[in-house]
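WARN no homologs supplied; continuing
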Amino acid sequence: MKVLVTGGAGYLGSHVCVALAEAGYQPVIADNFSAASTQVVSRLGAIMKRPPLLEHGDVLTTGWVLDVLRRHEPCCVIHLAYYASRLVTVADRLQYLANNLTMLASVLRAMEMHGLHMLQVASSAEVYEPVSTDRRTEHSARLPLSSTGQVHLMIENLFEGIRDVNPAWRMAVLRHFHPSGAHASGLIGALPLRYNPGLLDSMARASMGSVTQLDVYCQHPNTPDGTAVRDYTHVMDTARAHAAALDALLDYDEGFTVNVGTGQAASVLQVVNAFEKVNRQLVPWQPLKRPLVETAYQVADTSLAKHLMGWQAHNRLEDICTDTLRWNSNNPHGYETITG
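OK structure emitted
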């Protein structure tokens, strides 16, 4: 069965395509390559042993999405197309909000016109309220601080409203907890020059000298070492959760929302120590002297994902560090060259 993956050439989307192929599905990439490299397609072909199907276009154009749906007849759409921004000004934030909600609305309109009512979307741990030090369950309070969390909460609320109007819709919301790392082949990974690189990629760049040092905020009063505690999940575990969610959607009459994480807490300094052990080299870092608004503790309760989808993460923090280092070492300029 075919699965349409919007944003399928991006960081998460490319890994989801690999996981879908592993599970016996045929991914169809829909991407305009505004934030991805066309080299992803050939590299996916090398990993999957067959080239993925590609539709080069913009999901903001509803007619184009509808045409893609009619030609491929996918069983489901996994919506991962995402507009990123530095979010420096009010205009940046408004553009970020408008683009992401409009992209989703365009996909939903095309699906409704085509009569396809099975959809997955990526949400994030950013939707949860920031003060709790308990593991987040799917019923934990949602009160996002960040623009990313606010957009994801709007999307989740939109899904709830659509389901109320048309019960034919089956929707899965996967709340990601910090996808990190890269495919073990070293062929696909995160773009090193993207707006907001994750902690692991930032450490890799610091250890390679691409950036001077890693800045770490060390004044959280309710964490063991004063640094933020997170649930870092290997991107391939996150990708395989989407494949497992598709299996579940095909079996269940209703949609669901699940956390996708490991359930394991790791502070920033614990991640630094793990990375240094793997890399056998110190990561240059300094404590931030200015206050930084961020959530101190963000760790998932993953029991519902295991119950509903039979899914759980298998990679360790050391695996994330190893694969992050391999990707960044082999691809210091992203998809321009491979040196390893």
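The first helix runs from residue 11 to 22.
OK
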